Amino acid sequence: MAAAAPVSSTSDKIAPGHGYITCSLNGSSVVFSELSSTYPLKLNSPRLPADAVAIVYVMSYGGGLVCGDRIRLHVRVEGGSKLLLLSQGSTKVFKTRPTNRASTRLGNSAEHDALHSATTQLVDIRVSPGSAVFLLPDPVTCFRSASYTQIQRFHLSRDASMVLLDWFTSGRKSLGEEWDFSRYYSVNELIIDGRYAARDVMLLEDPFLRSPLAERVQHPRSSRPLNERLKPYSCYAMLILCGPLVQNTVTQLNRKLQSLSVFKTATPPQMLWAMTPVDDGRVFVIRAAGVETEIVKNWLRESLRPLEDIVGVDTYRKAFL
After folding, report:
1. Beta carbons of 149 and 185 less than 8 angstroms apart
2. What is the number of other CB atoms lying within 10 angstroms of the CB of residue 135?
3. Spatial distance between the Cα atoms of 247 and 161, rounded to a whole number of angstroms
4. In the chain, where does DSSP find H-type helix?
């Protein structure tokens, strides 16, 4: 059973937007030696009936991230424990707005102001031998004119396991916003025993959305708006799987891939996906796209279902509500 820990008393001593999670196994229970965060980041860990497993919900106050928010999350998973990192609802990134900071008034450039107005999230996760981390958040949803940067770095020991899900939607389609954000930049790095095993970079930038930074960038005439380049799909996902605890999941995905039939169609399929082994077959990268977010979510739920044997059925259900 996971032992929920109160927010550390050191939370008033750490920088704004920083969070720290350190957990390990004590008998059959996961205990937290540190679980602390400061505004606008919020961490919450409920009690679980499953042995050797804990959940931490990574959230923000107000239900989203505003321009200028900077989140830094440091995670340590030790002693054979298993940690699920989840969110509650999509990560909303609000519109970038001009700032009125003293540095700008004192003559700094518009580029400097634009960069400091962007929303950033930096995650550093270290997993010890026999331990596992499953990062299964809801998708990132960038509002119109939003600018978002995310860098996630995973340091794994050789016998550690990991599932990383990084996915995003086209925006608030119900309000007519579809691929209307100005910039989305995501980097995921996997380091095993100090050696780089995988690195994934996604940059989506719309040259037709004007901003203090974009106005000074020359784009080729062939550039097209994001909505033209990414349609008809409105949700894209990337998975990285690694380690002994995810082998059953990889095996099931391989079977699904082998059963696919490739043929020409008059219209794009509702869902596309592919899997690529890297690092001599020790790491697997999966990419998926769907015309609706729910289609991708349902596919993810079914494709990762073997994780129920690792974390428990009831715990796994919390990942894709």
Report:
1. yes
2. 22
3. 10
4. 102-105, 110-117, 226-230, 247-258, 293-303, 308-311, 313-317
- Longest CA span, the chain: 62
CB 44 within 8 A of CB 19: no
- Report pLDDT digits (tens) over 152-170: 999 999 899 999 999 999 9
Write out pLDDT tens, residues 16-71. Answer: 999 999 999 998 899 999 999 999 999 999 988 777 899 999 999 877 898 889 99
- What interhelical angle do 293-303 and 247-258 show, nearest 10? 120
Residue 88: count other Cβ atoms within 10 Å of its Cβ. 16
Cis peptide before 268 (omega within 30 of 0): no
Q: What is the dihedral of CA 216, 72, 246, 84, to 10 degrees?
A: -130
DSSP 31-73: EEEEEEE-TTEEEE---BSSTTEEEEEEEEGGGEE-TT-EEEE
Question: Helix-strand-coil percent breakdown of the chain, rounded to 5?
Answer: 20, 40, 40
Q: How far apart are CA 254 and CA 250, in angstroms?
A: 6
Contact 189, 270 (CB under 8 A): no
Rounded Cα distance between 58 and 85, Å, is 7
Q: Which two tokens stand for residue 53?
A: 């497993």
Rounded CA-CA distance 121/75 in Å is 14
Alpha-carbon gap, residue 270 to 275, rounded angstroms: 18
Burial 17-50 (b: 16+ CB within 10 A, else e): bbbbbbbbbeeebbbbebbbbbebbbbebeebeb
Tokens of 40: 């606008």
What pLDDT is recorded for position 98? Answer: 59
Q: Which helix (H) or strand (E) holds 187?
A: strand 183-192
